[in-house]
Protein 1
Amino acid sequence: MKANRNIVLAYLRELEVKNGGYYGTDLTILAKQFGMTHYGLKRMLAKWLKEDPAFLGLHYLGKLEPSIKPDESIDIENRITSNPLEMKSHIFSDINKVREALKK
């Protein structure tokens, strides 16, 4: 099955707004929806990025999404700055509690 250009463009634009770009894992998810390989979708996307002006401005952010979000990074930095002796395990424990609460 071949990937639909309009669906791919809409999906990547949504990720652009939400995350500031797309990750390789996002392409893997999309490729599975189309019943194709990650590599096949990546090749089609490379062609569209070169030839189609609608794909300009999309940002590839890397293979994997970082395990710590930017807002969590800011929180970690603030807590370490305010209390340099605070144990890092406590900070990460608090972050994991917040993540669990957001999943519910």
Protein 2
Amino acid sequence: MPIDPTDLPKPTAPYIVTINQPYCSGYQIGPNQIACFPIIVGSSQRVLFNAIHTSRHLQDYTLACWFSTVPNNPVLFYKNRTYSIHLLKNKAQQFALQDINYNGCEKHPQPSVRIINVEPGMYYFNIANLTGHLNKFEFQYILTDLQ
């Protein structure tokens, strides 16, 4: 018998979570929940994230993440990507928010890092649990002065 979509749990409002720098481990996120982490990008700064899915009993692609200007808002676009990224269990996904005014040649991150050039200000790192089960993740947060 097919499941009626109206019987599935409704998504809940996003909640704001404070980042305990620099390494954030052991986060849990409820079914269909969205967690939003506020980030401040200063002038001539880069904020680097290494995020990984850590729930052993759930498969890859059950957590989606993206950056936005407002909690749970549309995705900030970056080169060759226009949508959220799914977290994996065997490889950390790497992202960086970088001051758009920085044009220095040195201090470039690895080529695997997805760089989003932004105006200095506040942004949100959003993570959505796409399942009806408790899910887990962790990330590393690195703030770099580019001057």
Protein 3
Amino acid sequence: MLWNWHRDPDLGPLAEAWGAAAAAGTGSVFQGFRFARHWAACFADAVEFKIAWSAAPPAVVPMIVRDGVAALLGDGLFDYVDLIGPPGRDVPPPCGAPARFTGVPAASPHARFWGAMAAEPFSAAPVRAPGPDPAQTHPRAARRFEAAGVELRLAECERERLRLLEWLLGQKAQACGAANVLGEREQRWLRAMVEHEPRDCELWSLSRRGETMAGLLCWRSRGVRYGYTIAYDARWASLSPGVLVLFAVLRHTMKEGRSFNFLTGEQAYKLRFATHCERLLRYRNAQ
């Protein structure tokens, strides 16, 4: 297998090979080219890029090095990281540097690569498989939603989407005190995705009498909706608006015949709606 190396934060030259590898593989939405392109632009001054790629067969090993430690592109923001492309290919070694890969699915098909490193549990991602309307399986949540007199809305235009993102970031900043949970580069990546990738990114709001109570940012793929970040106005805490917006989006997801991935973290509000969990691992090399 002939490997090429890409070391520039501009991933444009890799678009065709990356797209072909993603289409041939079984990775999550986070392994798509559009996610990677914006991440690389936002973190260009913070990491070295050592991306190995092959056109035939299509494959990408999206390696980066930050502070002397090798990781995969998206480290710290992508809940799922992995190699991109079909399984069973020979892959290059991880740069000869200390390496830490966080968020690799335990069921990754790239066992030949990951099997050479030490694994440890990292987290789990609760998932709700396609199935019946959550109103049938969680009638209490359905009654609370109806009694609250709230409205679920999907932000459509760019201005509305960006406004709702800033509302989400602001609510999270208030909940966490003086500092936001996301740094400057991370916020820049979210804004780029929301502004430029409406086919991948959804912003949902829950409102009452025109006032926003809660918001949910999701990533969307053909068969899966991923709940990435959620926030609510603490003044409405007694109504559990975060749970209500999640319940409403879950209903929408089940009607579409998709699964819903709650992403990392086994919080109670996720587990109550999930049907199973996907295990995620952290791998380290022997450096």
